[in-house]
């Protein structure tokens, strides 16, 4: 179960991405990176962040701890930047936050960073499974911290939830975008990664993850939050069954690379 913290102080915005996440201090005195529900991408980005992030963790990848972050309307009232004040006002209530990793640095092959083949393979499988296009050389979303690789920023994953009528088509997608994956050169064990994933993910694991998504983030494309969770589960199970399709595509894309 995700913990819930309350944001007590807005510390600083992180301006790399478009969604204007921020470092905040919380009532447990910890520092967190908050992804705001009021950002342009809307609450579905938070759903993707939670569901994909916890899937990654279930696979055994290192993901910073995810928590719910309660933002009250008074937070940031005195921020000089209008854009930030507006964002905080639009985000009152429940948001998603990650444990802040102080002193981490972005994974950068150009600077000589290398990845472990087992982790790289699992990561490629994970991003193909969750349809995550945000793991490229330009935008690695991969942090080096204490000699481990931490996976962040899954807000653009599961993009089928922006267009349910078209979601069927994506369940069996080979995910050709995998060719741009920053870890593909190191992903020499994709069949093993797929086998490992099959041993970790199943309907029960996915149901437990989906159960943690707050009702208020699940939107009106479905009659109720219960139906929305059922639609995610159905799609993810079909995606899991399509693992041979996207695993083969990743192997093929890697053969072209090296
Ligand atoms: N848990 C974290 N610890 C340390 N830095 C982080 C963390 N999460 C994000 N960052 C930093 O903030 C930047 C933006 O966060 P990210 O989740 O990638 O949001 P965006 O959607 O804006 O790209 C990242 O590129 C990274 O430099
Ligand atoms: Mg990012």
List strands and helices in order, with pairings.
Layout: E1 3-13, E2 22-26, E3 31-35, H1 43-59, E4 66-71, H2 82-89, E5 93-99, E6 105-106, H3 117-129, E7 142-145, E8 148-151, H4 167-171, H5 190-200, H6 203-210, H7 225-241, H8 243-257
Parallel strand pairs: 1-4
Antiparallel strand pairs: 1-2, 2-3, 3-5, 4-5, 6-7, 7-8
Helix pairs in contact: 1-6, 3-5, 3-8, 6-7
The structure holds adenosine-5'-diphosphate and magnesium ion.
Magnesium ion is lined by residues 17, 139, 141, 153.
- Could you name the ranges where pLDDT drops below 50 across 5 or more consecutive residues? none
Please, how many domains?
2
Bound molecules: adenosine-5'-diphosphate, magnesium ion
The geometry reads as globular
Number of strands: 8
Radius of gyration from CA coordinates: 18 Å
User: β content, as a range?
Assistant: 15-25%
Q: What kind of sheet is the major sheet?
A: 5 strands, mixed, barrel
Assembly form of the protein: single chain
Order of helices and strands: EEEHEHEEHEEHHHHH
What do the pLDDT scores average to?
96
The share of residues in helices is: 25-40%
What structural class should be given to the helix and strand makeup?
A: alpha+beta
Count of alpha and pi helical runs: 8
Distance between the termini: 41 Å
State the strand order across the main sheet.
1-2-3-5-4
């Amino acid at each position: 179960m995700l913990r819930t913290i309350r944001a007590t102080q807005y510390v600083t915005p992180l301006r790399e991405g478009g969604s204007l996440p921020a470092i905040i201090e919380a009532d447990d005195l910890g520092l967190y990176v908050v992804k705001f529900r009021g950002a342009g991408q809307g609450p579905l980005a938070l759903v993707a962040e939670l569901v994909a992030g916890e899937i990654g963790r279930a696979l055994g990848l290192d993901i910073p701890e995810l928590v719910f972050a309660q933002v009250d309307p008074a937070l940031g009232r005195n921020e000089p930047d209008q854009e930030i004040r507006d964002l905080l006002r639009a985000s009152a209530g429940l948001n998603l936050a990650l444990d802040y990793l102080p002193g981490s640095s972005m994974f950068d092959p150009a600077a000589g960073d290398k990845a472990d083949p087992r982790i790289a393979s699992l990561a490629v499988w994970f991003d193909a499974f969750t349809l995550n296009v945000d793991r490229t050389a330009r935008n690695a979303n991969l942090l080096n911290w204490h000699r481990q690789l931490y996976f962040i920023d899954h807000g653009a994953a599961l993009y089928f939830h922006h267009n349910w009528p078209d979601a069927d088509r994506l369940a069996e997608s080979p995910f050709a975008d995998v060719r741009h994956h920053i870890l593909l050169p190191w992903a020499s064990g994709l069949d093993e990664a797929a086998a490992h994933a099959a041993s970790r993910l199943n309907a029960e694991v996915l149901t437990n993850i989906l159960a943690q998504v707050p009702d208020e983030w699940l939107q009106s494309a479905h009659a109720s939050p219960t139906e929305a969770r059922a639609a995610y589960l159905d799609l993810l199970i079909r995606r899991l069954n399509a693992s041979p399709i996207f695993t083969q595509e990743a192997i093929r894309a890697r053969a072209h690379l090296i």
